[in-house]
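Friendly challenge for the regulars: who can give me the structure tokens for this chain first? No prize, just bragging rights.
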Amino acid sequence: MSTTTLWIFAAFVAYLLMMIVIGAIYMKSTTSSEDYFLGGRGLSGWVAALSAQASDMSGWLLMGLPGAVYSLGTGQAWIAIGLFLGTVFNWLFISGRLRRYTIVANNSLTLPAYFENRFRDKKRILLFVSSIVIVVFFLVYTASALAAGGKLFNSVFGLDYHVALAVGAGVILVYTFMGGFMAVCVTDFIQGSLMLIGLLAVPIVAWAILGGQDVHVILDQSGVAGGSSAYLSLFCNGGEPYRAIDIISQLAWGLGYCGMPHILTRFMAVRDEKELKKSRAIAIVWVALSLAAACVIGILGRAYLFPTVLGTEGAVSAESVFIEMITKIFTVDFSLPFIGGLFLCGILAAIMSTADSQLLVTASSVAEDLYHNFVDRDADSKKILRVSRLTVIVVALLAFLIAWNPNSSIMGLVSNAWAGLGSAFGPTVLLSLYWRRTNLAGAIAGIASGGLAVIIWDYIPLVGGQTLGAATGLYSLVVGFALSTLMIVVFSLATKAPTKDILDEFDQVAAGK
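First reply, four minutes later:
Bragging rights claimed.
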């Protein structure tokens, strides 16, 4: 192992040990299931904001999005625009009301529990259905994060992908297992800060190194489809004019925010309304800067790394553009390998901050919603905590198996999971907060139809051996979200109206109490 690699390795070891120490510290104060799942509702504004956004963006922000822009051009930024709009909507219209409602609705600790309490689901159908949806789609989502970690260690250290996959999964598992929600949120805060520093610093340094060189000329020399003008246009994709259906599909990513359990739980856990207002401003600024910087990295990376063209024969995947830029800047242009290692830890931070949150939400669904309500109703808080930690281990192992294929696309795995969760839960969360007439039948129909629509659209070949998604080019989240919303409205209006106590509770929350 070279001296440069040793310095980078030292940075990784220091970072990973810090995450494990944080888990050990918070393990002492994690004595109940409420501590493990929501941290006793004690998050500060800064921690809530960066934790929510860091757990949201994952390795997709630092690998998937820059890689897509690098390969196909600025047109891929429509996804970033959609996500920014979705973030703003989520913080402005869902965060405060959801926090209040989960407290009023019998102090709900999880999203499925909120649905059950909100709609007085005595048969616990909602609890069961929504928990199953979380487990299924979060397995895929967690697998995407582990795959990103495997590719990172493989690219940086030359480790076998499967060995790298095991290392990343092991560290995430340790501190999530020990410290629960507060360990996850504090590590996410550190990781969110590190991600932002890396996202801003690397393109600025790359631009300075390029100096007065004409980026348009270098882009043309690198063989971008359609030439540099098309590559830098928002209305071209891989050299071809964007269709309306493509723009709609990419903007629709923003709809997913309304139904992401790992983000919504941050809203539920904020200390008070004052801290929540602070969180909104911090989160919106963070996501605007991060998404813009990720797109710039894809563009500048194409020029800065030339004559190497990623994704071609013999070169690493385009999804490694940020890794390759950091490696070249800090080991070739500047001899600062330890600093480069810290920036590479920013990518690891993005991966870990999402995987730990997804493990925790899945554990809460299995232990609190399924085990406690359907297997052992007399289980005390400490027993639920033990089941939660066991679930974290099992889910991590299953996600590890899903991510086993080194050719799995980070973007593809995230896209499918995002659509499934957004379609199943987004309309139900939104209408449960803003439409008094929403009832139990509507909520069940909405969650079931949204989740099934995505599975059918993305996985079942119905048109000449192709899935409906591949045949039409329309993102399944658009279809699933629309169908779920329609089913909620139709079934709610066709069945009995909510009782007076449910309506009074709704009015109390709507009034800001």
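The chain has a mean pLDDT of 84. The chain has 20 helices and four strands. Your move, everyone else.
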